[in-house]
């Protein structure tokens, strides 16, 4: 967990541990030859690379907002082995260290419904019962994403698991939005598509400063080249177009780009040709200069 927040004006950003894992490097870089991507992210002998699942806590003057929820605590031993989970879901203990409990989260924004982002929406309690992890929170998702959540298609079935949503649907604590939606004065979401049909970004703006969370459009700093897309992307040409648009737009605004899956860099600023000109945390000096 980032103990010291990244401050965007009057807003604080914290990265919480949603359970790290390892995935196949070739899948994470799609059409990019291994001879290129392994210079940026060295792979193990089994071709896997380390990845984080770091939900973003946004503390605005008026709200506590969580962006995505990590792997959760419902993975079976077989699933933990398949996805090579290397550290546990620690969301609740880390929130407690910040003086926050489950009831203190006002809003959960889901960038999309994949299990590594939505796995913590529903948790298993000490008695083995499934319950909504943040019962006071409204869960915000794009309307375009909802059909795959409630009735996942052939491709989505592998990653959109009913166990992550059933209790949420029963609770009714869901807000479906279309396109651009202003959450509060400091935070808004915007439909992007690309990775999934209803994938959305999160923009944080306060006192003239900006950060943008592009979710799985920009999963790690090594994916800064717009053509470096994942095999997991449902609409790769849309991802390329989105990256070209948003990387240019937010770079001009001197914005921080925040990451969900990067094990080293939690946020960065970009210069010309995708060059990293600033990183958060500052100790992330091993970050690849692209």
Tell me what you see in this structure.
- There is one protein chain.
- The chain is α+β, with helices and mostly antiparallel strands.
- 20% of the residues lie in helices and 26% in strands.
- A seven-stranded mixed beta sheet has the order 1-2-5-6-7-10-11. It has a seven-stranded mixed beta sheet with strand order 12-13-14-15-16-17-18. Strands 3-4 form a two-stranded antiparallel sheet.
- It starts with 5 loop residues before the first strand and ends in a 10-residue tail after the last strand.
Strand content: 25-35%
Report the uncertain regions: none
Distance between the termini: 26 Å
Average pLDDT rating: 95
Q: Count of helical segments?
A: 8
Total DSSP E strands: 18
* H-E order: EEEHHEEEHHEHEEEHHEEEEEHEEE
> What general form does the structure show?
globular
Major sheet: arrangement of strands? 1-2-5-6-7-10-11
